[in-house]
Amino acid sequence: MDILIVDDEASIRRATSLALEAAGHYVESAETGAVALRSLKESTFDLVLLDLYLGDENGLQILETIRREHPNVHVVMFTANATIPNAVEATRLGAVDFLVKPFSPDQLRLALKRITTLRTLERKVEELTTEVRRQAPTAEIVSQNPLMKRSVDVLFRAADTPSSILILGESGTGKTMIARAIHDRSAVRDKPFVTVSCPSLSRELLESDLFGHVKGAFTGALKDTWGKVKAADGGTLFLDEIGELPLEIQPKLLRLLQEREYERLGESTPRKANVRVIAATNRDLKQWSAEGRFREDLFYRLNVISAVMPPLRERPEDLMPYAEKFLKFFASEFGRKVRGFSSDAVKALRSHPWPGNVRELRNAIERAVILAEGDQITAHDLPEAGGHVGAGAGGASTAQVGARVSIEELEREHIRRIIASTSSLDEAAKVLDIDSATLYRKRKRYQMDAP
Ligand SMILES: Nc1ncnc2c1ncn2[C@@H]1O[C@H](COP(=O)(O)OP(=O)(O)OP(=O)(O)O)[C@@H](O)[C@H]1O
Questions:
Q1: Domains 146-310 and 334-381 share a fold
Q2: What is the CA radius of gyration of the chain?
Q3: Could you give the ipTM of this predicted complex?
Q4: Which stretches does DSSP call E strand in 65-181?
């Protein structure tokens, strides 16, 4: 944890710092409330150990300000003369614990253990809330396809080891989902699972997202921050679309994997990293490393355990079970009495190549459940019954300027054609006059494959 000690007694600050640093925490100290509040503005802390009497200052007032301005930071009060009214008031103002001075290292350890448990619970609640909000069908990785079964088996067998894992496969095949399932089966399942999306607006922003930065490291770096390597401490760092990781950052990731060390942007203090890395990509990284577009040493370091998530068109045995699972989920979600698929719908589903894979199928069924008029989904309810489901990936589009189509449909078609007529995504982004990260997001939203 990152801890700020606020006490006017230098000996207490020093002794507590030493004990906390020895336990692996990052510690800063402040001798007044004003210094503490400034530190909290400049850096991120998980916990503040705050003295009740700071010379003339009242620790309870500082506690109130901290809770108001930094509601995610936990505060433990400590004091030499604890009284019940003080303890009650501190609790009312949001302190999570009270330590009476002088406290032993064991008492300090116990207090930190309680905070760690509290933080884990808070994180779980947050994750579950996000999951519920996302309203996703349950993430079971069930498949009848032998290739997919083998991949899942390899990945789950490696789940409980610290080895790096590389998951390959087209967009929408479930790489993120399985990465999370691996984490949930690992020994660090109670620790954070943190995702870094490698396509980014700039190299600096991505590097800072990963490793953090210090104030002034680049234009706009107004205060010290910690990156996701730190946020994932003890848990899993999931690097999505690793193929897009700029060549300049690749040696830093290699160092993180090999030496478990990194530095924040603009700082030369090496920090210890304790994360398990899972990476995913829809690129042929082996080919890319042979061509010098991705560092070969990094590829081999990531590729300790790897598996391919086959595209949906290559696992036809999964199509209808998945479609039925999504149907059930969305019917219950929207309170619709839709129970199955008509034979023409099954035919349309089977003849579509699903370039957007499971994501596309899920979206198609969600839409069909909303549109279905009877108790069955018909071909007519499937997206673009006259468009792409049933017409094949390269089906003629009705999206033409002036036609009765939405701006989104026009945009999708325009992007598709530009990508098809250019030799790289960078070139396509240039023609479209948008940056590569925006193009990446649009492709994902419109379920487009790499060119
Ligand atoms: N086996 C599955 N069961 C249920 N839903 C699935 C399955 N596989 C994928 N999905 C759903 O498909 C969607 C895409 O999955 P996911 O984000 O894991 O794919 P991805 O390969 O990481 O895609 P991208 O490369 O674009 O990030 C999600 O909504 C996910 O819930």
A1: no
A2: 26
A3: 0.97
A4: 74-79, 97-100, 165-169
